[in-house]
Amino acid sequence: MMLEARDLVLEDRLAHVGLSLRPGAITAICGPNGAGKSSLLEALAGLLDVDSGSIVLGDRDLASYQPRERAQAIGYLPQEHTVSWDVPVRRLVELGRMPHGDKRTEPVEAALQALDVEHLADRRAQSLSGGETARVLLARVLAGEPQWILADEPLAALDIGHQLALLKHLRRAADSGIGVVLVLHDLSHAMNHADRVVVLDGGTLAADDEPHRALAAEVVERVWQTQVEWIERGDRMALMPL
Ligand SMILES: Nc1ncnc2c1ncn2[C@@H]1O[C@H](COP(=O)(O)OP(=O)(O)OP(=O)(O)O)[C@@H](O)[C@H]1O
């Protein structure tokens, strides 16, 4: 099922943004601070009242979905990683099954393993480090086995090893048909791991294309106002500030 933003307008935050996202791919949303990335992701998750326009999942307006049905389809990880309940980690991840109303343990164990947090399963959730918290909250999203994973800066608190492990996992999820949408500040990760990059600037679309085009040095210079050069090594690219 496609996930579409149709002519979205949100006061001072998004202006006439239109996007059509296909499942089975990783889409990165990039842009400078305040560009509207989190707002767009929240809107795509059906969590914002927009001034005009709509979000359409499949052939229906997302607003017409029951909250439970929407939560089964879309797993959303917000930018703020707050844990309000000091329950054991496994219990927190089990809450990801809530939209399904079942107690299946297999997706919970798979999510704990995928995010490398099995060893933390019996720890109190509020006792975790920042990166551990981020991984546990993403495990809760994965435990719900959503058709779409929408994650706001999922790599920000992670060390490089866990960043790459998560990107590999998300690639496998995308290859299995899940739609993955990530807000990313790290343009090298977006370049190397996304199938498509949406660049926002001041609440409008500055680019929406395959990574090499959307993040070409001239686009980065224009949108981020920073001079850069891409260094190529094999099939990997690294961003070099000039
Ligand atoms: N709840 C809100 N009400 C009004 N304006 C908001 C709200 N949240 C964010 N904004 C403003 O909307 C604009 C876009 O914010 P948003 O959080 O979507 O940007 P972003 O691209 O995710 O930024 P960052 O990289 O800093 O996380 C900013 O100018 C921000 O100050």
UniProtKB/TrEMBL annotation:
Pfam families linked to this entry: ABC_tran
One annotated GO molecular function: ATP hydrolysis activity
Gene3D superfamilies from the UniProt entry: P-loop containing nucleotide triphosphate hydrolases
Signal peptide interval: none
Domain of life the protein comes from: Bacteria
UniProt keyword annotations, A-Z: ATP-binding, Nucleotide-binding, Translocase, Transport
Function statement: Part of the ABC transporter complex HmuTUV involved in hemin import. Responsible for energy coupling to the transport system.
Protein name: Iron complex transport system ATP-binding protein
Organism: Qipengyuania nanhaisediminis
